[in-house]
Amino acid sequence: MSEKISEKTYNKLLSDQQDEITAHYLYHKIADFVKDKENKEIIRQVAEDELKHYNQLKEITGKELKPERFKIFLFNYYISVAKDYNFKKRFGEMAAISLGVAGISFLIGVLIKQFIGVDI
């Protein structure tokens, strides 16, 4: 980007970028619960549109962001209550996946630092 943007604008772009990646994740989760194939495909396309928006904003901000865990937690809780799923089981699954991803990311960072010498 050739023009410099204000800090206020930059922070707004980061906020929007965060919302886009969170929405991408949540739309995919919603699509998993939709039985009608046509509607499921429409929702998945909306999720992909959100990912495109996220990537466009990422080009501007230069930051890689992750979905907001609290919103995902709330969504999973709501689905558990609305669908009468066992919340503890769903929370355990979500926690295990989150910890697994964090562990893998940490391991990759350590390996990159050790073998390439790049500090991440």
Overview of the molecule:
With 120 residues, the protein is mainly alpha-helical. It has two domains: 1-67; 69-120, no CATH class. It is built from four helices and no strands. It has helices spanning 7-33, 37-61, 69-82, 87-116. It is globular. The model has no long low-confidence stretch (mean pLDDT 83).
Task: Please specify the SSE layout and strand pairing.
Blueprint lengths: L6 H27 L3 H25 L7 H14 L4 H30 L4
List keywords for this structure.
120 residues; mainly alpha; 80% helix
Brief description of this entry?
With 120 residues, the protein is mostly helical.
Radius of gyration over alpha carbons?
18 Å
Helix-strand string: HHHH
In terms of per-residue confidence, which ranges show pLDDT below 50 for 5 or more consecutive residues? none
Oligomeric state: single chain
The number of strands is 0
